[in-house]
Amino acid sequence: MKVMKYFVFASLLCLCACSDDNDNKNNEIPQDLVELKVDASEISIAQGDTRTVKITSGNGEYVVTSANEEVVTAEVNGDLVTLTAVEGQNNAQGVVYVRDKYYQRAKILVNTAAEFELKLNKTLFTLYSQVEGADEAIVKIYTGNGGYSLEVVDENNCIEVDQSTLEDSESFIVKGIAQGNAEVKITDRKGKEAFVNLNVIAPKQITTDADEKGVLINANQGSRQVKILTGNGEYQIHDAGDSKIIRLEVYGNIVTVTGRKAGETSFTLIDAKKQISQPIHVVIAPEKRWYMNLGRDYAVWTHFGEMTGDGLESIKAATNDFKLKKMTWELVTRIDGTNWLQTFIGKEGYFILRGGDWENNKGRQMELVGISDKLKLRTGHGAFELGAWTHIALVVDCSKGKDDYNEKYKLYINGKQLQWTDTHKTDIDYSEIDLCAGNDGGRVSIGKASDNRRFLDGAILEARIWYVCRTEEQLKANAWNLEEVNPEGLLARWDFSAGAPVAYIEDGTNSDHELLMHISKYDSWNATEFPMSRFGEAPIEVPFKKLF
């Protein structure tokens, strides 16, 4: 008889459901419809006890219906469904339906009994203290009889227990805080017991051989390796510090720190267990200033198409994609010998400052040559001294007329303007200088151009490229070293004082864009390592300062 009553009730419920569906069958699917879901589709409740189920998604205006009110009753408040198991003598099952305003339904199967065994979702947990996402566990009571209490056995003080959710959701949270083992005993109102065992592992702290003394590098581009002594593997850089001062690379348990320029910063590491190292202090403090002795063997080059950094787009906008109407080139060099068309700085086949062609530049002349020799300007003999440090500056103002070449292309040697007197040809009128144009793939080169015969035969200390015309006073004041802070119009700068074997020279503009200078042999553009033996110690005093 009792079964028949349930059957009639269920049939009526089905009829109601069909009626609801018919009422809505011509409606279109709403654009904002979301699937109706609850956080438990099956639940066990001791008779006389109450549990809640949360509606995790749906469309509001929720209605709940119990298909078996003799077994379980249901109420809804907001997104919480409260279920109460009716007291009885036998095990029983009931079904509760949840409906939203778009007539979507979710079903909850409810198991009830006069008395349950106390069962948990899990009885053994391994936690990792101080590891986010792995240091907590949620212990859920799968079946029980309500009225729960906890007893914690924790001699190692390795866990914290949050039981604020024990009454409402029949669950509690355990957090591992230190190395050790602990046990939690759960008891219900019927005296049933269950136990949870917890093993807490404290991850190893990251330590390195640089924790106490830090890292000291005595060269601008010198390197040092930091060894990770303890930790949990899968090491990565967490905080890279000032990227303008150092570069970092991690391989296994070795961190390679490479200097970029003088300064101080620090970095941290992180491992597989989310442990973070203490800050590792780094000081880049060059003991000397070095120069690169290119001689007849090496050259350096760059390409403005390789510029990178957050400020790239703004610098391209300021320079019209590196097409300059005003420009300054600077080079601090020591020319040790003469050579046919020896390359000082420039862009082969487009705009280049080089030596003369008379008897391997025996006359120590300098010439500026443009496209297909349509521009050809030459100084008189003795433009530079051999074996002496020399500051060369070429200041270009494209607003000047092509025949006003001593104003349009000003050449300064040690702060004094030299006139183009020997040979001049101005069949081309530059309205701008495109730093990405020319032969040699559009490179800007120092010490090499076109083939393997036009080497500089000297040493270099510093080079700069500006998108403004620098004044004579500015050239003199900053010839040996750039003294200005945040100077206007500095596009690229290279201090060749690396002081360590390197295949490139860092950008020294101290800006948010950067352009590396590559090192190659005189007979190839391929990258090569410049040996420490070819660096020389730069003099402390400026040899040509008296000329200023």
Characterization of this structure:
Helix content is 8%, strand content 42%. The chain is elongated. Strands 25, 28, 33, 34, 35, 39, 40 and 43 form an eight-stranded antiparallel beta sheet that branches. Strand 15 (180-187) and strand 16 form a beta hairpin. It starts with a helix and ends in an 11-residue tail after the last strand. Mean pLDDT is 91; it is low at 1-25. The protein has 548 residues and is mainly β.
Taking pLDDT < 50 over at least 5 consecutive residues as the criterion, the unreliable ranges are: 1-25
Distance between the termini: 117 Å
Largest sheet: 8 strands, antiparallel
Q: What's the overall geometry? A: elongated
Approximate helicity band: under 10%
Number of helices: 5
Radius of gyration: 40 Å
Secondary structure tally: strands? 43
Structure class: mainly beta
Query: How much β-strand is present in the residues?
Result: 35-45%
Oligomeric status of the shown chains?
single chain
Average residue-wise pLDDT: 91
